[in-house]
Design goal:
By secondary structure, this protein is mainly α. 48% of the residues lie in helices and 0% in strands. The chain is globular and about 50 Å long.
Length: 130
């Protein structure tokens, strides 16, 4: 009987390529450390930023790569970098820079006074496309 909890062709839960902390020997250990790191990145980029006056054009490729680095940079050497191979989900790796720019441009409109999109819809679209 096949294990249906694993995505076929996806990054295996046991994948350790690029792991910076060799003592994280299980998926559960890596998940726990990643969760802590993601929480710190959330505090830095979401919680604190909400307290500041927003500025236009904040969602950029550089910003997204920095958030990714802050989320995973102490754990994985690939953090903040574009992947160099295809996975079973997402777009082909060579289209990522172009598609990130398109997403950032789309967000500028979604977040503009001309858009009737709710914050929840904007968040869902960002999460899906990222």
């Amino acid at each position: 009987m096949a294990d249906e909890s694993k995505t076929k062709g996806g990054t295996a839960g046991e994948e350790e390529s690029g792991l910076l902390i060799p003592s994280l020997t299980t998926r559960e250990m890596r998940n726990a450390v990643e969760l802590e790191s993601i929480g710190r990145a959330y505090d830095k980029h979401v919680f604190r930023r909400r307290k500041k006056k927003s500025r236009n054009n904040w969602l950029t490729e550089d910003f997204l790569r920095q958030v990714h680095m802050d989320m995973f940079g102490s754990i994985w050497d690939w953090a903040g970098k574009f992947r160099q191979s295809d996975l079973n989900i997402g777009i082909p790796w060579h289209q990522i820079p172009e598609q990130m720019q398109i997403l950032c441009d789309d967000f500028k409109f979604w977040d503009s006074p001309q858009s009737a999109m709710s914050v929840l819809e904007i968040a869902a679209r960002l999460q899906n496309r990222l």
